[in-house]
Amino acid sequence: VSALVECVVCPFCGCLCDDLTVKVDGGRVVGVRRACANGRGHFTAYDPSPRLPTCAGREVDWADAAVEAARILAEADSPLIFGLASTSTEAQRKAVELADRLGAMLDSTSSVCHGPTALAMQAVGEPSCTLGEVRNRADLVIFWGCNPAVSHPRHFARYSLYPAGTHTPNGRRDRTVVVVDVRPTASARIADLFLQVQPGADFRVLTALRALVQGRDIAAGEVGGISAARLEDLAGRMRHCRYGVVFVGVGLTMSRGRDLNVSELFSLVAELNAQTRFSAIPMRGHGNVAGADQVLTWQSGYPFAVSFAPGYPRYGPGEFSAVDVLARGEADAALVLASDPLAHLPRAAAQRLEEIPVVVLDPAPSLTAQAARVVFPTACYGVDAAGTYYRMDGVPIRLRAVLPADRPTDEKVLERIIAAL
Amino acid sequence: VSERFTLITGRTFKQGRGLYRGKGSEAYRASTSLVEMSAEDMARLGIEEGQVVRLRTAAGQVELAVHPGALPCGLLFVPMGPAASALVGADTAGTGMPLSKGLAAEVEVE
Q1: Overall pTM > 0.95
Q2: Under an 8 A CB cutoff, do A305 and B96 touch?
Q3: Is pLDDT of B13 > 90?
Q4: How far is B2 from chain A (nearest CA, A)?
Q5: Residue A174, CB half-sphere, CA atoms under 13 Å: how many?
Q6: What is residue B39's predicted lDDT score, i.e. its pLDDT?
Q7: pLDDT-derived band of residue A338, with 50, 70 and 90 as boundaries?
Q8: What is the number of helices (H) and of strands (E) in chain B?
Q9: Which of A7, B10, B44, B61 is most buried, most CB within 10 Å of its CB?
C-alpha cells in the first residue's frame, strides 16, 4: 500500500530541509518531492531490509557482534572513537558514554571540517543567528569560501537568497549577494559581486576589511588579488546594510591560516555590530555534524578532540584529533560511527585504520566498512529511525521514521557494546 | 614536462553520491579520480581532455585524468576521495585539520 508522508526532514546535509513529501511503497521510499538530488538519493537508494552484522567478513548475530566489538575496544590500550557526523544526538551521547567507559580518545569529523571554526569561536566568540533570521531580515548575504550551489543545493531557495521574508518581501531583489572564493564557482555565477581571492590570502583580505570597516585607509593598491577599490566597496556595503550575514565555508578552515582565518572573520563581524547588525554561520556539511559539537560540549565541555584516558575529559586539538593520533600510530583500535575516514582522511592517517582492528556502525557500505573487523548495518536516521539532528545554525530538529524499523539504531548497538564491556 | 601548481581539494555533487550509493562503484571511482585544470593551462601544456597526468605533492603522488574546470591559471581542483587523500599530508599544525586547500603540487606530463 503506497502512502504519502508530508513535512519530512532530510538528514543529508546541514540544511535539514523540513518540507519534503515522501512516497512510501512496499517498505521502500519510491519518491521524494522538493528534495535536492542528493536528498532524494539518500531516501531512495537506501535499502532498509535487515542485514546481519559481520565479524571478519562472516555473518554473526547482533549479540555476538557486540561482544566481539566490546572485546576489541576493551583490550586496546588507546582506542579511538571517530565520526558521529551522520547519526543522531541520542547515539552521539552513547558514543561519549562509551569513550568515558573505555578511557578512549573521541573525535568527530568536525576536526576535518569546521574544527578550526570551533577554535576561532573559543578565541574570539561567535556572532551568530538562526537561518530564520537570515530568511526574514538579511539584506546583505556573503558566502566566503563555500559553494552552496553544489554542497547545500537548497540553501539559496529556503534560507539565504530567494525566500520572501518579513523584512525582505521581494526575496532575491531585496538582497545583495557576495561570493568570495579562489575560483569562479557555480555559486559565484548567481552573486551580485564576486571577489576572487588568491589561494591562502583570505587572512590578509579580512584584515584589510577590518581596517576599512573601522574607517582606516589602506595604503596597498590590492590585497590578495582584490583591488583596494573593490574592498572599499564591500566594506561600505557591510557598514551600510540593515542586516548582514556571512556564511563561512571550509575554504577558510582548510587553507593556510585555518582557525586564524575564521578568527579574523568573526572579529570583523563582531566589530560590524558597532555600526549595524551582522552575523556569521558556518556551512556545516553532514546532517548532524553540528550536533556532534553540541553533544560533546554539553557532555565533556569540549566540541571535538577529547581524551578520556586520564579518567576525566581533556581537550587537545592536534593531540587527540583523529588525523594526528592515527598518523602517529597511537590508536590501537577504533570504533567508526557513521563516517568514512578511509575515504577522506589523509593517506598517512587512513592507512593506520588498515593496520588496527576497526568496528564500524553505518547504514550504507563504506570504504572503512570494507576494511573493518566488525560491521553493524544499522538503521538510517530520518528514514527508518527517529532521532534528533542539529541544523547548521544550532537549531535542533526532530527526525521521524517514514519506514517501519527493521534494523537496530546506532544508539541501540552502542548500548549493547557498552553492556558487553 | 613538469610544472608547479596550487592544488585545492573539495566536494563535488557527483562525489557526494558515494555517501548513499556506496563507494564500490565505477561511478564513484571515476568521480573522485580526476583533476580539474583551466583550459588555458591545458592548452599551454598540450593536455587533451581525459589525458592522464602524474600529480605530486609533499605527501604523495597519483595519476589522474585531466578535465577542464572553471579555475584561474595555476590552480588545480581534485574532488574529495582516495586520490585527494593521497595528496594531502597529515600535519595539522596542532589544530586537527590537515592542509587540504592551497597545497604546492607538481604536474608531470609524459
Answers
A1: yes
A2: yes
A3: no
A4: 21
A5: 20
A6: 98
A7: very high
A8: 5, 6
A9: B10
**How far is A355 from chain B, CA to nearest CA, in Å?**
17
Residues A346, B6: C-beta atoms closer than 8 Å: no
If we measure between CA atoms, which residue out of A66, A30, A2, A95 comes closest to residue A383?
A30
What is the ipTM for the molecules in this complex? 0.96
* Chain A interface includes B6 (CB < 8 A): yes
Gap from A364 CA to chain B (nearest CA, Å): 6
**A1 falls in which pLDDT band (50, 70, 90)?**
confident
Count how many residues are written for chain B.
Answer: 110
pLDDT of residue B21: 81
Residue B67 forms contact with A (CB below 8 Å): no
Mean of pLDDT over chain A: 97
Q: What is the DSSP string of A27-85?
A: TEEEEEES--HHHHHHHHS--------EETTEE--HHHHHHHHHHHHHH-SSEEEEE-T
pLDDT score, position A33: 98
Name the residue of chain A whose CA is nearest to B94's CA.
A318
Closest A-chain CA to B17: A38
